[in-house]
Amino acid sequence: xxxxxxxxxxxxxxxxxxxxxxxxxxxxxxxxxxxxxxxxxxxxxxxxxxxxxxxxxxxxxxxxxxxxxxxxxxxxxxxxxxxxxxxxxxxxxxxxxxxxxxxxxxxxxxxxxxxxxxxxxxxxxxxxxxxxxxxxxxxxxxxxxxxxxxxxxxxxxxxxxxxxxxxxxxxxxxxxxxxxxxxxxxxxxxxxxxxxxxxxxxxxxxxxxxxxxxxxxxxxxxxxxxxxxxxxxxxxxxxxxxxxxxxxxxxxxxxxxxxxxxxxxxxxxxxxxxxxxxxxxxxxxxxxxxxxxxxxxxxxxxxxxxxxxxxxxxxxxxxxxxxxxxxxxxxxxxxxxxxxxxxxx
Amino acid sequence: xxxxxxxxxxxxxxxxxxxxxxxxxxxxxxxxxxxxxxxxxxxxxxxxxxxxxxxxxxxxxxxxxxxxxxxxxxxxxxxxxxxxxxxxxxxxxxxxxxxxxxxxxxxxxxxxxxxxxxxxxxxxxxxxxxxxxxxxxxxxxxxxxxxxxxxxxxxxxxxxxxxxxxxxxxxxxxxxxxxxxxxxxxxxxxxxxxxxxxxxxxxxxxxxxxxxxxxxxxxxxxxxxxx
Lengths: 345, 227
What we know:
Number of helices of chain B: 6
Radius of gyration of chain B: 20 Å
Largest interface: A-B, 44 and 49 residues
Shape of chain A: elongated
Order of helices and strands of chain A: EEHEEEEEEEEEHEEHEEEEEEEHEH
Structural class of chain A: alpha+beta
Strand order of the largest sheet of chain A: 13-20-17-18-15-14-21
Oligomer: heterodimer
């Protein structure tokens, strides 16, 4: 099955959960900015977590379905519409051949994830189908999608086929031809799994090895003030504007590893949050790392949106993360159970 | 050896605070052990000058406190003795065409040090360089061992585009730009060899711990190689 890109949108790329094991060669991990949305959208169409999806930013693409396809849209609300039907987030949708998906305004968040049953079929580079734009490799020819590109999907899993069959069967008249309008499932992602994207968020931060370079006053400032996302932010890093945070005294640090969510403090005092396409190492002092469960909120911020930081212990951050993983697993098991019966051959 | 959280999915192991060969050997020997007996859940091991970042998946590590669990497992693998001999280094030779339009700053570097261009090339090719770490951009190696007599401050205004393969000197450091990028180093030559190639199973030509030698080649050799 495949889809044709009829309009590219601002920046639509193929992404999965990123590259593992090549950071020592300075190959960025990359992958979806909002990992939860990527995983949840995949789960809703019966894909594995790490199937490749389309990540659309701020201005969504226009996509023509060349075959009947099961899809789901997660992440930020970019006002998805298929033909004339508004498509809710976090629901499986059966899309008939010939239908066209379009987007409107980014009303909440800024990145939508379009999962297609089977996942995007593109040769992995270093074990991942994620597009690394700066390096020009991975994903669709190492670049953002353009109008006219045709994106194929891998063979859908039996679960994907069962979800699609259930939706297709729910036609008012049992017609031999597939439905001409999209069918939205009545069930959807559990409410507690849906991130509460907002234009002003609180992100919890695990402090690390460099916390000791921060004076009590500077720490209070970092955890007390509001920071605004600068327009010079991209998949590599989010630059923050606000009160300058200053270290007690200047420190000379050696370059070393960084992580998704590392908050760097360059000499100017304006923090930078390292995101999916971050470099593998950095030499600036680190204020800490955003807790994994709060990274989706950061990933969905738009320029001008604001964030406040709160400290959290690594133990608490991991408990929240593990709880989220458990909930995703339960959701996955529930879907598998629901569609394991009454499947037609 | 100190362990600190690098967020909730990575741990930073600090083994020193200086760029020197003794610290580097400790890093390499620790990486060799981690590679041989990676604790469950480890996804990436990123060595640097004096530290190792270990990325992991908390759910795969298991337990209610994955951070404590992984630190315990890392301590067990690394033990108390971190001075075991690291694996022998590879020696990688990098052919370089020096000067001309491929090394536009060679004459300036020579002039700064009151040397001839040939002297600079001789000193640069005589060096025995050590890859302390790979970082910054795919395939970029931080090299130690630059002859002090040709150490040259970065250019006052960086170039907006430095071609891939450019060999430069920036302060005490020398190195090769793996891909085209902006850069402030003094460019003394260029190699036709790809420092980073996504089609290779090991995409980066250089790895932490490698020994590097530069060898002078002619423009004709460079052109033949590049074809």
